[in-house]
Amino acid sequence: MTKEFAIIDLFAGPGGLGEGFSRAGRDADTPMKIHLSVEMDDHAVQTLRLRAFLRSFREFPIEYYNALNSGSALPDWAELYPTIWKHAEREVRQRVLGEKGVFEELAVELDRAREAYSGNTILIGGPPCQAYSLAGRSRNSGKANYVLEEDHRHYLYREYVRILHRLRPAAFVMENVKGMLSSKVDGGGIFSRVLDDLEAAGDGYVLLPLSKTAPEDGTRAPAQDFLISAEDHGVPQARHRVIVVGIRKDMAEGLHLEEPLLGQPQALVSVEQAIGDIPILRSGLSKGDTVEAWQKALRNQASAIAASEAVPAEVREIARSIEKANELPFQRVSSSKQRPNGMPRHLRGWFPDDGLKALLQHETRGHIPGDLGRYLFSSAFSRAFGKAPKLVEFPEFLQPMHRNRSTGKFADRFRTQVADRPSTTVTSHISKDGHYFIHPDPLQCRSLTVREAARLQTFPDNYFFCGPRTKQYHQVGNAVPPYLAWQIAESVRKLLD
Ligand SMILES: C[S@@+](CC[C@H](N)C(=O)[O-])C[C@H]1O[C@@H](n2cnc3c(N)ncnc32)[C@H](O)[C@@H]1O
Asked: Rounded to the nearest whole angstrom, what is the distance from the C-alpha of residue 411 to the centroid of ligand 1?
């Protein structure tokens, strides 16, 4: 008999976690279906609605492919498929969790879902993390009037717990940043408090780590064991996150796992393996951009780097080859698809969609000429030495005119993603300027495009991010990698089965 699990996704962002869950169990007798997503951001909600709509079809509608393949705007789905679109609107609620009346409204929905699915529900989600993240904490500590205990974001996880308590799902998955492990409020560690609350919600939960086995004596795993490294699970990105899985006590009786839920670590996947098939593009100039002006600016920067005694010989050589190159990239946008080369099998089966003839959202940003020089130096250095240079290793003429330069705070201000390793964490910061996300190819001299960032986050190639480009980047950086989410979903599904 088919047992369908209804997924409730809180703080759903663009739906990375949800995407993984909705793909799990598709070919088995226990599919997972997103029942409700709650998110407050306009553009993330648009992305979620579009995806919810598309998932309602056994195969995505032809109008979707036609629009994407021809580069035209997406049609008005409400007009084309009013009933299905309405359903997607009901599934994705734009609400601010924690605001007055929101819980009460959702509670009605949760009770209905629990009944309709005979308790076979799963709660997923990642309460916002700015207040816990190490970067956020250092930013907050610089604010004169910042009082940690008054930052409501510290307590938003309680909305998650409140809903957990009400829904009493068969299982839950909660994701957060690593900083949650060390964050403190009122003198105590927030993480142990979160675990206490999760464990005690509803009829009680057994908390399981994903990449370690839980202690045999039934005690709670140490906090550190809830940390998971996405790069160990086939994701081409070093992304370390706290992920707690909870199984409702009555379902976890006698549960004993010999292996970690996610199995043993897999081989690392490099940036090159994940994005090496994506067409070459040039960056732009933030002012007066033309192909000629950009190529001239690039050659000028290459020439200055090639001539500098302060630059290592290996880097000078790469710069010289660019200065003298007969051909330089000329396009800033490309939708042409190429055959993946060297991509590991699991991703070859994950990214592509045969209906899609075009590559989506692969368009470069513009930079000032000085940044072209810094990008060129950084990517050439990374190619020569297999690691991105620190700011102190940049020659004087490429040092940014930055007041705080000497504080050491900006040692990694420009960071190339090294080709033969997993990338560093793709964060929402990528929406700001891309300096941390420089493409490994010095010839292209640019930051990663939305599609490349989406690949590193393992979003399938047919995943469309709504809103202006900065908002697309923001969504990509916020998400749980769907391929990781899919593995989590599969392991939870098998446990519950
Ligand atoms: C880290 S992201 C979640 C990513 C998501 N789990 C995924 O895999 O794509 C957190 C999201 O919570 C949303 N958010 C923050 N505060 C919220 C609130 N009070 N109510 C609803 N959504 C909120 C943010 O807009 C952001 O999209």
From this structure: 30
> What's the CATH code of the domain at 119?
3.40.50.150
Same domain membership, residue 450 and residue 406: yes
CA of 426 to the centre of ligand 1 (A): 16
Answer yes or no: is the C-beta of 467 below 6 A from any ligand 1 atom. Answer: no
The residue contributing the CA closest to ligand 1 atom 3 is: 13
State the distance from the centre of ligand 1 to the C-alpha of 130, rounded, in angstroms.
11
- What range does the domain containing 28 cover? 5-264+479-496
On whether both 330 and 403 belong to a single domain, the answer is yes
CB neighbour burial string for 196-218, b if at least 16 within 10 angstroms, e if fewer: ebbeebbeebbbbbbbbebeeee
Please count the residues of the chain: 497
Give the pLDDT band (50/70/90) at residue 128: confident
Q: Which of 38, 39, 178, 480 to mutate to test the pocket of ligand 1 (most atoms within 8 A of CB)?
A: 39
Among 4-8, 153-157, 199-203, 228-232, name the one with the lowest average pLDDT. 153-157
CA of 338 from ligand 1 middle (Å) equals 34
Ligand 1: atom nearest CA of 17 is: 8
Protein residue with its CA nearest to atom 15 in ligand 1: 128
**pTM of structure:** 0.94
Whether 183 and 311 map to the same domain: the answer is no
Same domain, 342 and 225: no
Closest CA to 490 of 22, 4, 9: 22
Per-residue confidence at 340, pLDDT binned at 50, 70, 90? confident
DSSP state of 355: T
- SS3 label, residue 438: strand
Does residue 459 share a domain with residue 419?
A: yes
User: Residues 175, 36: one domain?
Assistant: yes
In 3-state terms, what secondary structure has residue 123? strand
| pLDDT tens per residue, range 405-452 | 555 566 778 999 999 999 999 999 999 989 999 999 999 999 999 999
